[in-house]
Design a protein that fits this description.
The complex is a heterodimer of chains A (641) and B (384). By secondary structure, chain A is an alpha+beta fold. In chain A, 38% of the residues lie in helices and 18% in strands. The termini of chain A are far apart. Chain B has one domain. Chain B has a 3-stranded antiparallel β-sheet. Chain B is globular. Chains A and B meet through helix 1 and helix 2 of A and helix 9, helix 12, helix 14 and helix 15 of B.
């Protein structure tokens, strides 16, 4: 065999040459691979390291217990209780979630709507995430589920926490309620707690105003998850900070009494500490059970709430504005005395009608009051006296006095949704209507009609200021956690003591001297007598024809057309401690509101609220707990826990 | 040494002598890489020998025996076995196509006496043997003759078509690449190579449209834009890149790879084992493995170039290139340079079939080395 023949040699060299080429190509490919390694690991290494960490670690928020809301004596107004619920884990439900729900439905009552909602929730979440099927179950339902558990694959009983309002509707306008997080809530709140399934946040009242403090700081568990999102192990845990307790100046017992006394009326009533401005009770009826919203309101419930003429969703005490009616005369009287117009010698004769600028302004007493001084005019609530007096005063002085008494601006109460009402001025009218202030306007304002509107809360604050002579500010939060928010000293009201004394004397005559508009409903207990001022606010303008025909009595009018009935008062007349305002919408039939005011003020005085030792935390949380048990003489409706 | 080589050529070496001729340096390199693979399989199983590491270790040990056994068999015997081996592999391929078990969506396995065998793996080695055998007798001019070329191309095309029908794109690619590389090394004229290359480039759009399966097209599309479907088909590529990249310079440490242990890596024990290495040992570790691979390839090229017979040279290069193609395709795939194709990383990925063929290939390479001085006549042997 010719081993080294020419042909053989040529393919030998070809092979060698080409092999070298192939070897070079292989080196090139390896260089590319190494280059790619460099690119991924060295150049972009940090970026991928972060990506891997994000893959691996999942932070799951932990909800701390929500803070309680307590009254001045430590009674729990809003607290947490155990929430027995049943969850379903989709991946463990062998025959599918639908079948599992049908099985649950055989054990406890489940509506089709509930089933649908669960199915929707399951679709939204990953398969291993437990989705609540039913919450706030009774112990009986809960134990039935537990009993049937072996036949319910994928079903998990669970004990969570839920908000509880022991007083129900009675405190709803103070407390508000908690409810599910809505998309709107997420817009300017980035707290990761809100992403927790089933998390509730404050939606109204104190629950909303102090939501951040009540909520506490969310903790989290840092868990390692695998590619399917299932937890592999816990890396670390931060339990978070429990929500702080909010202590109110409210006295639940007084508030309950007031609420029950208002009954079925569409009404509001506030009782305030004259010395401090602390609100002792703030009622607005009707209310609704805040627990509904926690669980989830049904459509029919919502419809009832939102369409009722009695406006149960509205906190009328600070969210409703009304013409103050004759209660405003207290402010005008103070302005008149302080301005030096209503001197002891100042008298106005009332003939039942006051003619001004071609208009006839009527007194509520058609036959007239005769000649009255300032105290008599307050006592009898003479309209003509105040027409004339306010005309002399002029709108500027009335406006200044009203503002000093806190009208026309929000009181700054810690509840959301407070309205400011309106104290009209020349500038305001020019701006709003485009023409100048008329003296006729002043005359209407002088008896609390026309452009003036106030909130019942402002009226109560005004009453407290007149009664105590201090520029108190309405407030109801004493402290949050250990931090006292209530201000210590209150400045003197910017009116001469002598002027205030004249007005108080007039207010005293209203209730305690025959001829006073509220004499029939005076408090007879010695040392507990109240002073006050009645008021009636028109909800519509009378036409000329109506006047010509003669005024129709409220009795004969449809409910919605009847006047609002108002009363402001304080007690006792010596060293006043309790100021009150009350309004019954369309309630000017008889004087039920003065009767209610009498009862409420009597109750407050007999209970001696302001003198009782409070249960507020002094310095530390432990002090709170220690003193509460000992000092809390108030029978609380429900034992905690 | 040289004397023994000549003795081997004259068939006067005992088996013991041949064992001394084995290049133990190469065996050591192979063993190092394989042990790195076993270590990684231990790691991705969460620090346990089960279910992969122990099994892989056993398979590799078996593979070592296969290597040595194959190496000691005379190169002329392998030449005689070339066509029959090819024939058997082809029959098996037909068998899987007709009745193979379906695994991973592809008909790739055939059960043979309790042994699951991938005929396509067997075909890679058999094709190299058979083509080397066929080309051995041909001069440079012979190869470029249409008839010869047609026969050689048919030898490549028939198994390639059978494998692509399974469907197994990765193995098809390797079979075709191996075959073409051998034709090239044997001296195929540039007059053939140039136009063919041009034709292939022109045919790519047609292939895309008519020949690729939907899932194959999806792989290519996902590759081109992995972000478009980051949680679906792009998941593999994205997660593999994160694993590799997060290893950075020195890696997260042995048993500390989060991507692999938390199942973010798909098929982490097989096709994607490279990403686990990169994650736990970083750039340094990955480069070290690449260097080991490079050294093995260098050995292969050296052995090929120092063999005296054309069959031995082509066989050695065929085996070496086969090994190289595995590394190139798998490496480029997991690092996101080419679309995902199902090709394991040789010696590292878990799997008996691949391990066995790779070690068998190294055995042939070693046989070439031991019998490098053996002359083989151009027209020797006949069919067997």
């Amino acid at each position: 065999m010719p081993v080294f023949d020419k042909k053989y040699k040529s393919r030998y060299t070809t092979f060698t040459r080409r092999t070298v080429g192939v070897g070079g190509t292989m080196s090139l490919v390896f260089a590319v691979l190494a280059g790619r390694l460099y690119q991924l690991q060295i150049r972009d290494g940090e970026e991928y390291r972060v990506a891997a960490e994000n893959n691996r670690v999942s932070q799951r928020p932990l909800a701390p217990p929500r803070g309680r809301v307590l009254d001045r004596f430590g009674a729990e107004m809003a607290t947490n209780r155990r929430n027995y619920r049943v969850m379903i884990v989709a991946e463990q439900a062998k025959d599918g979630v639908k079948e599992a729900l049908d099985q649950i439905g055989k054990v406890i009552h489940l509506t089709e709507a509930q089933k649908k909602k669960v199915l929707a929730d399951v679709a939204k979440n990953k398969k291993f995430v437990p989705v609540p099927v039913m919450e706030n179950m009774s112990w009986e339902e809960f134990s039935r589920i537990n009993l049937h558990l072996p036949y319910l694959p994928g079903v998990q009983p669970d004990v969570g926490e839920t908000r509880d309002y022991p007083f129900g509707a009675e405190m709803v306008h103070v407390l508000g309620y908690v409810s599910s997080v809505s998309p709107d809530d997420l817009k300017d709140d980035t707290d990761p707690l809100l992403d927790l399934p089933g998390y509730r946040i404050g939606k109204r009242g104190i629950e909303k105003a102090y939501d951040k403090e009540l909520r506490g700081k969310g903790g989290d568990t840092r868990v390692e998850v695998n590619a399917y999102g299932r937890i592999v192990r816990e890396l670390g845990k931060d339990p978070g900070t429990p929500g702080q307790d909010v202590w109110l100046t409210i006295d639940c017992e007084l508030q309950r009494f007031a609420d029950q006394r208002l009954g079925q009326e569409s009404a509001a009533c506030i009782v305030m500490d004259v010395e401090t401005g602390a609100i002792l009770s703030l009622s607005s009826t009707p209310g609704f059970d805040p627990n509904w919203f926690n669980v989830g309101v049904t459509n029919s419930q919502w419809k009832d709430l939102s369409t009722s003429d009695y406006k149960p969703l509205l906190n009328k005490a600070m969210g409703g504005t009304y013409p103050p009616g004759s209660t405003f005369k207290a402010a005008v009287a103070l302005a008149a005395v302080d301005a030096g117009i209503a001197t002891p010698d100042y008298h106005v004769n009332c003939s039942g009608v006051y003619n001004f600028g071609g208009h006839a302004f009527h007194c509520w007493q058609r036959k007239g009051h005769g000649t009255l001084d300032i105290e008599g005019a307050v006592q009898r609530s003479c309209d003509v006296f105040f027409y004339e007096t306010s005309r002399r005063l002029g709108i500027d002085k009335i406006e200044a006095a009203a503002r000093k008494l806190g009208l026309g601006t929000p009181t700054g109460i810690e509840l959301p949704g407070e309205r400011s009402g309106l104290i009209p001025s020349r500038a305001w009218k020019q701006k709003t209507y485009g023409w100048s202030w008329q003296q006729g306007d002043t005359i209407s304002v002088g008896i609390g009609q026309g452009y003036v509107t106030v909130t019942p809360l402002q009226l109560c604050q005004m009453m407290a200021r007149i009664a105590g002579g201090k520029a108190v500010n309405a407030h109801m939060v004493h402290s949050v956690g250990d931090k006292v928010l209530e201000q210590e000293s209150v400045p003197h009201l910017d009116f001469a003591d002598e002027s205030l004394a004249v007005v108080r004397s007039g207010l005293n005559k209203v209730t305690n001297v025959p001829g006073g508009t509220a004499f029939a409903w005076r408090i007879n207990e010695p040392g507990m007598e109240m002073a006050g001022k009645t008021g009636t606010a028109q909800v519509r303008r009378f036409t000329k024809e109506e006047r010509a025909r003669g005024l129709i009595s409220n009795h004969n009018l449809a409910w919605k057309l009847r006047d609002h009935a108002l009363f402001i008062g304080y007690a006792p007349i010596e060293k006043p401690r309790y100021a009150l305002s009350i309004i019954i919408e369309h309630g000017a039939v008889g004087h039920p509101h003065v009767e209610m005011a009498r009862d409420i003020l009597t109750f407050a005085q007999k209970r001696d609220i302001v003198a009782r030792p409070t249960a507020y935390p002094l310095n530390s949380a432990s002090a709170t707990r220690d003193t509460r048990g000992a000092q809390n003489a108030t029978p609380s409706r429900k034992e905690p826990g | 040494m040289a004397l023994r080589a000549y003795a081997a050529a004259k068939r006067t070496l005992s088996v013991f002598d041949k064992l001394q001729e084995v290049d133990w340096g190469l065996v050591l390199l192979i063993t190092l890489v394989a042990l790195a693979g076993v270590a990684m399989l231990y790691s991705v199983a969460g620090g346990q020998m089960q279910p992969w590491a122990m099994s892989q270790l056993l398979k590799f040990t078996m593979g070592l025996f296969v290597l040595v056994a194959v190496a000691t068999i005379d190169i002329r015997i392998w030449m005689r076995l070339a066509y029959p081996a090819y024939g058997v592999a082809l029959l098996l391929l037909v068998a899987v196509t007709l009745m193979g078990t379906v695994g991973m969506g592809a008909q790739r396995w055939v059960s043979l006496g309790g042994f699951d065998l991938q005929p396509s793996e067997l075909m890679k080695v058999s094709l190299v043997l058979a083509l080397a055998r066929f080309l051995h007798g041909k001069s440079v001019e012979d190869i470029s003759r249409p008839l010869n070329l047609a026969i050689a191309l048919a030898m490549i095309a028939v198994p390639a078509v059978l494998v692509v029908l399974q469907p197994n794109l990765g193995t098809t690619l390797i079979i075709v690449a191996d075959g073409c590389a051998l034709l090239f090394l044997a001296g195929l004229s540039w007059w053939w190579i140039g136009p063919t290359f041009a034709a292939i480039v022109a045919a790519i759009p047609l292939t895309w449209e008519f020949l690729l399966h939907d899932y194959q097209r999806a792989r290519v599309e996902t590759f081109l834009d992995p972000g478009s479907d980051a949680l679906g088909k792009g998941w593999n590529i994205t997660q593999a890149k994160i694993a590799i990249g997060s290893g950075a310079l020195t890696g997260k440490g042995f048993l500390e790879g989060t991507q692999s242990r938390l199942n973010f890596l798909p098929e982490k024990q097989t096709d994607f084992i490279w990403t686990a290495i990169c994650e736990e040992f970083g750039f340094v570790g990955a480069l070290a493995i690449l260097i080991l691979f490079g050294m093995i390839l260098y050995y292969g090229v050296q052995i090929a170039m120092s063999a005296r017979s054309q069959f031995a040279r082509l066989l050695a290069m065929g085996v070496t290139l086969n090994f190289f193609f595995y590394i190139m395709i798998n490496g480029a795939m997991v690092m996101g340079l080419i679309p995902v194709v199902g090709i394991p990383m040789p010696l590292l990925s878990y799997g008996g079939s691949a391990m066995l063929t790779v070690m068998f290939g190294f055995g042939l390479l070693m046989s070439v080395h031991i019998h490098s001085q053996v002359e083989i006549p151009r027209h020797s042997g006949g069919i067997i």
